[in-house]
Amino acid sequence: MKHLPKSKLAKYSALGFALSLISFFLLDERIYHLTRVTDSGARDIWLAITDLGNSGWMAIVLISLWIVSSALARFTPENPRWKRLSRQSVYVFAAVALSGIFTMIVKGIVGRARPYKFETEGPFGFDPFVFQSSFASWPSGHTTTAFAFAVAIVLLVPRAKYILLPLAVLAAYSRMAVDAHYLADVIMGTTVGTIGAILVYQWLAPKLKI
């Protein structure tokens, strides 16, 4: 996956966009009624789960890991593990940050209304270039960062896919459960996060020697 040629990555990106577009026109309203959670107790659980895609804790963990591993690399130069871990943490941070920034810019430009405005805007409500949270639905930012984080680590530690990818899917689903995103938003967030992590790897891996 990490060595996919740019042509295939472009095709997968186009496929993700096409699936998102199909969902937008045909599935979003129907899936919205199926996935949204109204029970307060269950909603609290999903609100906790949705933090799996919060880039804040990812930044704290990755920066802390970089600081600690860089310090250990300096004090124990005979052990290459710490230098490698320091560089890997830089890569994962870059994958999450760059994918997240891209999504943030796109969702501000597109200005799709979030599902919690369904009663007034419906699934086809837009206010482009408004850069307000209530009109920042497509793509899903939490889904983008969840998949960027998961895929970036899986590229470094393939066995982690059995834990991290299901957690990323759970985080993505939670965004629909808490009325924050439609299915089309989640599909596009998955696409951006996955492709973004691979592209950043192909760009940084040779420079960081990871």
What does this molecule look like?
With 210 residues, the protein is mainly alpha-helical. It has one domain: Vanadium-containing Chloroperoxidase, domain 1 (Up-down Bundle). The chain has eight helices and no strands. The longest helix is centred in the middle third of the chain and has 31 residues. The mean pLDDT is 97.
User: Which range best describes the helical content: under 10%, 10-25%, 25-40%, 40-55%, 55-70% or over 70%?
Assistant: over 70%
Annotation field: number of helices? 8
Uncertain segments: none
Tell me the count of domains.
1
Defining key terms:
210 residues; mainly alpha; Vanadium-containing Chloroperoxidase, domain 1; globular
Can you summarize this structure?
This protein has a single domain, classed as Up-down Bundle (Vanadium-containing Chloroperoxidase, domain 1), CATH 1.20.144. The protein is 74% helix and 0% strand. The protein contains 8 helices and no strands.
